[in-house]
Structure formats: structure tokens, C-alpha cells
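Q: C-alpha cells for this one, please.
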Amino acid sequence: MDDRRGAPAAGPVLILTPTGRDAEGAAWLLGGEGIDCAIHASLGSLEAALDDGAGLVLLADEALFRADLDGLAQRVARQPPWSDLPFIVLTQAGIAARRQMAAMNLAERLRNVLLLERPLNAVALISAVRSSLRARQRQRQLGAHIRAEAETAARAKAELEARVRERTAALEAAEAERREIAAALAQAQKMEAVGQLTGGLAHDFNNMLVGISGSLELLQRRLDQGRHEQLGRYVAMAQQGAERAAALTHRLLAFSRRQTLDARATPVNALVDGMLNLIRATVGPEITVERHLASDLWLTLCDPHQLENALLNLCINARDAMATGGTLTIGTANLRLDRQEASMLSEARAGDYATLSVTDTGTGMSPEVLARVFEPFFTTKPQGQGTGLGLSMIYGFVQQSGGHVQIDSAPGRGTTVRLALPRHEARGPQPAAEQQVAARLDGRDKVVLVVDDEASVRLILAEVLGDLGYTVIEASAGHEGLSLLRSSPPIDLLVTDVGMPGGMNGRQLADAARRQRPELPVLFVTGFAASGLARDGTLPEGMQVLAKPFPVGELIRKVQELLPG
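A: Here is the predicted structure, written as C-alpha cells:
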């Protein structure tokens, strides 16, 4: 575009209309008016051409639909202060097109946007382009003025440098003091969180230890007195305390996302239906339980027992929020998140999910409570009526399973908790309910290698397996166990800890053993989900996991599954 008054040229019009011949027609029309034009075939080409010399961008709306505008928006954001590059977007007529354009939020991302609805006439297009180019010319004049002012400011800057250096030293000292205060505050907050966690742990474990140690002392007293009646009561009390302690450690591991998960393809609808009677009995007759389950729900890969615990825990929380009765709704649905949708949710990733939600009509939660619901030992229930680990356990389990948790709640409006678990693509037989395996008391001719660096754990394992008739060989480290695998009589089952000192963990031992005997059954006994134990979310055939602490019956069941017959 010629400038007859000596002002800076506005710059060329960059044109992108990917369909039809709109680009050629617009360039011909504007060229006839003496306006320079440059046609681009793609959004990437247009982005590359954007610089301070561009005068105007003329776009058709179809170039923007389903396009990644981040690069274009970033270039616009990097304009110099004087520049506000005009965009003219040719849009389709109709409400649907207007909604699509509104959803793209072009005014926010590209800033200076003019929408022209098609079909339009040549006069309207030329008028809009000329008006935008005149504005662009004024921007360039402003830019020249700013540069002149900048030169003046640069000269003034030299006079201020000495004063600035003095002030900088003072500011650096103040900043150093601020950092020290911030570090001290962060440390205090960290210690407060640790204090809350350890205080809650100490309180709960002390209660459990009283039951365990007291029962054992009473048991010893009765034995010393020769009073053998009702000894089973003290044994049961000690076992109950140990089970409560085990449940607490599992919840802590769930919160830290280091618990041992038995991941398998899980039909969530079947899981919900199997628990309905238990849930109705738990919440009581004052609360109506409804189910809204998606008929085509995707499978998910997770630990079904942990999911059952999570569902029951959410239902108990919902019951407690509806002291005078109400409605509890359990729902499932398929959820597909793209990158933009996932970015709007806390800790969510794009992908397909099977969701399980629990909704109540109870009191709801304030924003202050909602911000802390996943903190361990945080609870709004009266003292003694809740550990504060339920939601933190659910949060950790879902995160460890690759999903996310969303909570929607407000005072007086009830609460909805939605668990989103990743879709599992595998098709095949759905997992049936586990059957209890009776203890087989004849393990003759079977040799079991037990590897654990903790002597007490080896003793328990060896005693139980010996009572079942198995021949037990013990090792205290991975390398020792590998030597026994090579030199001892053929081993029928490897039972190994996961985290062991000495440079070889349990998974490495199992891999080395299976290079010699590919079909060797392996039982991992672990206190947490050590990294590298389950690859791609599942263990190979013939490998199982037993979480510490474990009931003896569960150990026997796992061994019987790996050594049938």
C-alpha cells in the first residue's frame, strides 16, 4: 500500500483461506486497490511470516477450526509494545458458526480481531482492510515515536546508573532477608504438617499397641498362673490390634501412592452390583440408595479390592453427611477427555476413563474444608469417629492407578465424589469372584526358597510353609538366593521380599531365576509397591504379590494358587 504522505508503510496483507479460491479472489481485489498481499497455504506458513513488518492478517474461519492456535497466540503475545496486529476473520453465517467462533475466544488470544460475516461484498472488504491498515500505519508512527523517546531515555539512563547501583545493593540485602524469612516460614509449615501426620500416627498406633501389648501381657500372666481358659480372647484382641495397624499402614501407603496393587481388568458395574446389599446395610434404612450405571461402561485396570474399599468408604462418608436421611446415588459413566478438557481438571490427563461417582444430599462442604479433604488425618468428624485417612487413601489409590479424583460440593447442596480410572482396552473373560482355597496340608516333595533380609519375616514364612509340609530353604539376600537356586535341589516356588540390600532386589532375583527356569512360580512379599515390580501395570503369568503385613491364611491361599495339586 503506497504511502503518499511519507508515513511508514502499513505492511502487506497476509491471507490464509485453505478451501476454495477465496485467497486468490481477495488478493486480486485488494491488489487492484494498490494493497500488497501475500497468500499462505497453511497456518504454519503464516505463523512463520508474522513479524513486525506484517500489516494485516486476513483469515477464513475454516483455517481456525480444530487448529492449534498456541503458536499464533504466542507470536501475537511477543509483539513490541507499539504493535497491535489486526486480524480480519471471514466467518460463516448462522448461530452454529457464531458459537464455534465464540468458543475459540479469538479476542483473548489474538487481541485485535474483526469478524466479517460471509457472503460479503467487495466494498465492505476493501473498507475493512483499508481501515485496519490505516490503524496499522498509526501504530508504526507510534513505534517510531517510541523509539525516539527510547533514545532520549537511554541518555537519561546514564545519569541514573550511579544512583541505581546504590539502590540495587540495598534491594539485594532486602531480598536476601525476604528469602530467609520465606525459607523459615516454609520450614515451619513443613514441620507443622509433619507434626500433624506423626501426631495422628502416634495417637492411633499407641491405641493399637495398648491392645496388642496388653493382650500379650495378660496372656503371659494367665499362662504363668496356669489359667488356660479363655486364652483365645487375648489372642483375638492382639490379632485385632495388629489388623488395625496393618489397615492404617495400607492407608498411609495408599496416600503416598506406594501400596501394593493387584491390578486386573475390572468391570465396575459388576463390582457395584455385588456391593449394593452391603452398602444398603451399612448406610441404614433412613437413606435411599439409587444406582445409575452406564450400560456400555468400559473396563478399567485397577485393584478391585481397593476399589471396593474406596466405594464403601465414600458411601460411609455420604451416610455421615446425611444425619437425618436422604438419597445416596452411585453412578458410572464413560469419560473421554481431550487435552484442553484435561487441563481444566486437577491432575487429570487426556484419555478415556471409566468413572465411578457417589452423590449425597447431605450438608456439603465449605471451600475451606474442600481444600483440605485429601490431607492425611484431616477430618471434620468428632474425635474418635474418624481417622481422617479415608479420602487420602482413595486419592492415593486412584492416582497410583493412573486416574484422578474430582469433588463437587457446597454447603447445603450435598457432595459428589467422582473417581476416574483409565480405560482398559483388553477384552476377555471378566474376573470372577475369588474363591477361598482350603489349606492343603500335604506339601511333600515340594521345595520352597524363602528370601528376605528380615529374620523374623523369614521365620514366619518358614514356619507356616513347614507346617504345610513343604521343604523350606532360606536366604537373607538376593545374591545368596540366586546361588541356592543354582546349587540346591530343584526349587518349586520362590518366595522373596522386594526391597533388599546388597545390590539385587526381589524383582531382579526373580528375573534371574526365570532365565534358568521360565516357568518358576514367584510370590513377592513386600511392604510397598517397589518401582519396577509390575511392568505395564501387570505381573507376568505365574507371579503374584502378597502385601505386608499379611494374614497367614492369605499367605497359604497365595501359595496354594501358585503350587496347585
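A few notes: The radius of gyration is 35 Å. Residues 427-443 have pLDDT under 50 and may be disordered.
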